[in-house]
Amino acid sequence: MPNVNTLVEVVPQILAQGLLTLRQNCVMPRLVNSDFGSDAAKQGATIDIPVPSPVATNPVTPSYTPPDDAGVTPGTVPLPMDVWQEAPFFLSDKDMMEAMGGVIPMQAAEAVKGLANFVDSYLLGLYKGVYGFVGTAGTTPFGSDVKDATNARKVLNNNLAKPDMRRFVFDADAEANALNLRAFQDASWTGDAQAINEGKIVRKLGFDWFMDQNVPTHAAGSITTGMIAKAATAQALGAKSITCTTAASTGACALKTGDVITFAGHDQTYVVTEDATQAAAATDVTVKIEPGLKKALAGSEAVTVKASHVANLAFHRDAIAFANRPLADSADGLGNIIQSAQDPVSGLSLRLEISRQHKRTRWSYDILFGAALVRPELACRVAG
Question: How many domains, the chain?
């Protein structure tokens, strides 16, 4: 088995290789708002992310006394540092002696790739709070035109998202369709022949484009037809808890967190924020939604539930907050080798711990982070 000094010398190199792998395989942390790393503390701490509140305008009336302006109280969204994940692997003494030069870097890359996919999938999983919705569930976007992109752009425009730092993250199927469209592949439209040669989509239609194999598929609940807002029951503008009924003929049925619904006569799409279960046909079911009703319900409005779909995302950077901080290097004298490092490009930090066990050595990368959908109005699903 290599001695401790040999391991200490090789750790910085292996840690650097791990950071490079993390940078290459982790798409989402580079696209969201990660300005809060300096505020991050230990595991379990919470960062309050400020969210601006609207400011009203008033006509100016000159007077000997100034008007009593209303105070502005920005809101906050909590961002808990509550995700601590590791990727460990083991090498026996025999493995260490035989393959010190090659197996460890290769295995380290695989371990970090696992962490990268976890972080990436965690951020993409925040789609369940996104209520903006365009496209057709079950149909891959960009089959014949770019309307799904321009419709997503319209949603962001209507919600006053800033025009810069808009991202479009889609799966491999949607990317393949897009690359077959002239709007994406023709150099006269793209303005960058090198991007076409490499099969890359540069900034287009107001978005920076990224393909991500971790884009999730949302499995919709079992209520698919026959749901209405409860008859003869008025439900007020702004309400976030809606009473509905359904004509389901047998057994229980449910809506799932992340389902997207619409009400007849509403342009707004709404997201279900908690699982909602109806015990039997024609009984009430309480559906909690975001945002609050943009238009009051009189009762009996038909409810449409979007079917299962791939959750491609178009969003502004400020829709999602992400914080990641290095963990401590100290092992409190336990004899382990522990080092952490931060990637200057992605801002991500990793810690590597090497510990001795019975006739083998344990290698473990770990990462501590928190993430939250802080401004859902700045994001839109593009269904696939």
Answer: 2
